[in-house]
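Title: Comparing notes on inverse folding

I've been comparing how different people in this forum approach sequence design from structure. To keep things fair, I'm posting one structure and asking everyone to reply with a full sequence. Here's the target:
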């Protein structure tokens, strides 16, 4: 039996939790369960066997965390742990038809731009696990409990590039139908199905009773078999017992069957009893085939754009004819590119074209860097635009979504170089109706090339909805008769080939006066002929406006809701261009600074802060502008409207502004070091240090010697430093409710060790009452108050 054959069964049953079973046997939390593959393989085999006996068709190896990051200090290699895991599982399957899935989970590190792990590093970490699993004889690969689409892509590509085994993948979603990094179900489906996985689904986090809306959404976006492997509800904090019994679990699974599920198992809190109950329920029902029609669509991890109506592709990230852009590229100024992206999305672009090719720079490196940074700031899907296939491939690797490749043409050389890339990375592609003979004059010949491109794309396994034909705009001044031919070809491709069409528009008016009249008229005619994706400058209102008007007139914008919302508005909100102009206009500074921080624009935030410092007091900037901006970001994060990558970008921009302020403070005050020693730390478990760093600078400016232990500081390290330096004050910072306990523990350890220093605490979650309750001597609301307290203690 192999995975493909297994799918002929009405349902495929997976196993339940491994960790829960081990914990039930007394394994302590925090230890590495994967090491049991080597130390106690018989225990692992026994658990696998229990799942097989309860009806599992596939068991997951005990290797979810067996990667080089997590095993770093274990004394064992990935190969040893994975091989032992596969061996233990295979032993359990002897004499049965059950398959062994090599289980791979998250690396535990964040990928760039949110974290520091590069795509290639992540891919290599997964590749090492895959190679070990294949060598040990796994039957398929399961990638599970992933929350970052970038990491999921790295894992899928590693699996595909290092094995020929079937690959199935499940990600972990919250009730909001997003993962905690903001990934949408539609984006997961479009991206991972595009990469060629064999089944897709949802695991962990939620119980089976909460999954219906998520499964419904997934079924609309995938043609693959759908997997569900939910938790058994929530654990009771005292007993550790999970809230959903095996029977109730199975009952809820039964209710998901009409939504199209095919492969079912259990995650945290489930046991062999759960699998038996699932099996019993599934035996009395039939699977339901949903067969959705997946629309033409592209996506970033956080946004899916269906091409079910006219969508604007922003053309501004392209150096052709743009002096400032060229200069920015020569300076490697990615912030300039981010500015262009923000301006365009704000003006109405749905998708952004990214072209960074000039001869003087390393285009590949620039494309990769730009894509990494753009993904952290804008959520519009991207179109990768280059004439160099290596640049396109490098970009496709690091793009965490379904991109558009711009472009392939009808020439055989281009078709056989570009189309395999499009297929491998699951992208869509722009097909230019030209070949080695150039651009044909008449519509019929362009149509013929479009047909050739489509046929070859289909041969490569690229779906029709992923081919966007560009019939090429020629200039009315030089080739007036060709303009009509372009319009005609658009209509022919749309109607006869059933493909989406794309067209750069502005070229048509080159060499003529009144360009806007020509451009707008041509755009409207092209739209009426069936253009789906105009590539325009969305900042030009008459062009974006024409598209919006078209959407109303052709009844796409039903009830003119979008149009009225936009055109009845009088005062637009602060835009990125305002953030940029704020750099030179002090009156706009404060609004621009908030915007720069909230948009994650590091350079702008620093520049505006520099400019504000000419007239505004540094602490006023911190308290009245930076902290409120971060508070708004924090509130958005808490509400679920913003996600971790945006929080990280905003923190980076705030950090850039704080750095400017720190430098100013440091130069302003004459230091008389030696007024007293203060040991400062953000407590164990907490990595928020922006506030603590401000406190440090201010204290230093008032002449105190600060020993800064950094963030996430061990309780004992605080005690040791206080003793070693003979501290007068120990200052502790904490920003999360969860780390207040850690603060309490540090204080109690300081007291137990008879440290005589006064203890001052601060951080947004603290209150004076709580500070007193956990044994602190002083609570400081902000950095200024921290200085006042230090003065009170030390300047007497
Ligand atoms: Co996160 N974060 N964060 N975060 N983050 C909060 C704190 C949060 C409230 C956001 C929210 O949900 N609303 C929330 C905590 C919820 C809670 O427990 N109640 C939160 C969370 C959940 C998280 C993560 C768990 C997210 C995740 O991964 N799922 C994760 C935590 C990881 C960890 O710590 N183990 C995380 C990560 C991050 C970033 C890395 C992205 C980044 C931190 C970057 C860095 O610090 N280097 C970040 C940020 C920026 C925030 C918010 C938006 C802003 C914090 C900040 O810098 N404020 C924050 C929301 C918010 O606070 N509104 C949030 C500005 C700073 C100047 O103020 O630190 O209060 P503050 O300092 C003030 C005073 O409090 C005082 O003086 C300072 C200056 O006046 N003060 C002291 C501070 N320490 C003092 C010590 C003193 C005296 C005064 O004496 C010693």
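Reply #1:
Here's my take.
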């Amino acid at each position: 039996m192999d995975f493909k054959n297994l799918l002929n069964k009405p349902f495929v049953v997976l196993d339940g939790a491994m960790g829960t079973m081990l914990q039930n046997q007394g394994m302590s939390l925090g230890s590495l369960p994967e090491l049991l593959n080597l130390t106690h393989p018989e225990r692992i085999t026994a658990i696998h066997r229990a799942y097989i006996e309860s009806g599992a068709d596939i068991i997951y190896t005990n290797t979810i965390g067996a990667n080089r990051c997590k095993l770093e200090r274990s004394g064992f290699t990935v190969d040893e742990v994975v091989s032992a895991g596969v061996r233990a599982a295979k032993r359990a399957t002897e004499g049965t038809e059950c398959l062994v899935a090599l289980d791979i989970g998250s690396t535990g590190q964040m990928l760039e731009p949110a974290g520091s792990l590069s795509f290639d590093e992540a891919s290599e970490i997964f590749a090492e696990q895959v190679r070990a699993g294949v060598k040990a004889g796994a039957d398929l690969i399961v990638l599970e409990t992933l929350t970052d689409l970038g990491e999921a892509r790295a894992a899928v590509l590693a699996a595909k590039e290092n094995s020929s085994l079937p690959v199935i993948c499940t990600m972990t979603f919250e009730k909001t139908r997003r993962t905690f990094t903001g990934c949408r179900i539609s984006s997961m489906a479009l991206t991972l199905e595009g990469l060629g996985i064999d089944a897709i689904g949802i695991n962990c986090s939620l119980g089976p009773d909460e999954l219906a809306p998520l499964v419904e959404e997934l079924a609309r976006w995938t043609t693959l078999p759908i997997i569900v492997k939910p938790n058994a509800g929530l654990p009771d904090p005292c007993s550790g017992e999970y809230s959903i019994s095996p029977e109730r679990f199975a009952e809820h699974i039964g209710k998901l069957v009409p939504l199209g599920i095919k492969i079912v198992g259990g995650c945290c809190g489930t046991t062999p009893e759960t699998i038996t109950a699932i099996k019993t329920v599934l035996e009395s029902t039939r699977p339901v085939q949903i067969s959705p029609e997946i629309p033409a669509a592209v996506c970033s991890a956080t946004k899916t754009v269906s091409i079910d109506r006219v969508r604007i592709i922003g053309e501004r990230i392209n150096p052709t004819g743009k002096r400032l852009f060229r200069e920015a590229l020569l300076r490697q100024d990615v912030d300039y590119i981010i500015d262009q992206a923000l301006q365009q999305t704000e003006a109405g672009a749905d998708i952004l074209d990214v072209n960074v090719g000039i001869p003087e720079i390393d285009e590949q490196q620039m494309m990769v860097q730009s894509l990494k940074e753009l993904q952290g700031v804008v959520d519009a899907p991207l179109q990768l635009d280059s004439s160099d296939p290596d640049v396109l491939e490098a970009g496709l690797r690091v793009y965490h979504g379904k991109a558009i490749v711009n472009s392939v043409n009808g020439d055989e050389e281009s078709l056989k170089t570009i189309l395999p890339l499009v297929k491998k990375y699951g992208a869509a592609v722009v097909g230019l109706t030209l070949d080695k003979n150039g651009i044909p004059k008449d519509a019929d010949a362009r149509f013929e090339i479009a047909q050739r491109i489509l046929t070859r794309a289909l041969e490569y396994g690229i779906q029709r909805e992923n081919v966007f034909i560009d019939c090429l705009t020629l200039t009315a001044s030089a080739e007036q008769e060709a303009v009509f031919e372009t319009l005609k070809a658009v209509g022919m491709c749309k109607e006869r080939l059933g493909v989406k069409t794309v067209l750069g528009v502005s070229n048509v008016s080159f060499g003529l006066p009144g360009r806007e009249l020509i451009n707008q008229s041509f755009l409207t005619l092209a739209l009426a002929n069936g253009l789906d994706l105009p590539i325009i400058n969305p900042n030009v209102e008459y062009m974006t406006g024409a598209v919006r008007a078209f959407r109303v007139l052709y009844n796409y914008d039903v009830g003119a809701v979008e149009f009225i919302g936009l055109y009845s508005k009088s005062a637009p909100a602060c835009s990125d261009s305002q953030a940029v102009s704020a750099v030179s206009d002090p009156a706009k500074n404060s609004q621009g600074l908030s915007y720069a921080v909230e948009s994650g624009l590091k350079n702008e935030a620093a520049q505006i802060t520099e400019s504000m410092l000419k007239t505004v007091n540094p602490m006023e900037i911190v308290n009245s502008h930076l902290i409120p901006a971060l508070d708004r970001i924090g509130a958005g994060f808490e509400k679920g409207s913003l996600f971790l990558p945006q929080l990280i970008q905003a923190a980076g921009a705030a950090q850039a502004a704080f750095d400017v302020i720190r430098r100013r403070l440091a130069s302003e005050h004459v230091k008389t070091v030696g007024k007293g020693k203060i040991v400062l730390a953000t407590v164990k478990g907490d990595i928020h240090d922006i506030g603590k760093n401000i406190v440090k600078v201010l204290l230093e400016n008032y002449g105190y010697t600060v020993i800064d232990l950094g963030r996430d500081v061990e309780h004992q390290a605080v005690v040791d430093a206080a003793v070693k330096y003979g501290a007068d004050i120990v200052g502790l910072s904490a920003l999360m409710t969860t780390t207040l306990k850690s603060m309490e523990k540090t204080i109690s350890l300081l007291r137990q060790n008879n440290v005589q220093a006064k203890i001052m605490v601060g951080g947004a979650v603290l209150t004076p009452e709580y500070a007193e309750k956990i044994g602190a001597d002083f609570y400081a609301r902000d950095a200024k108050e921290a200085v006042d307290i230090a003065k009170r203690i030390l300047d007497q």
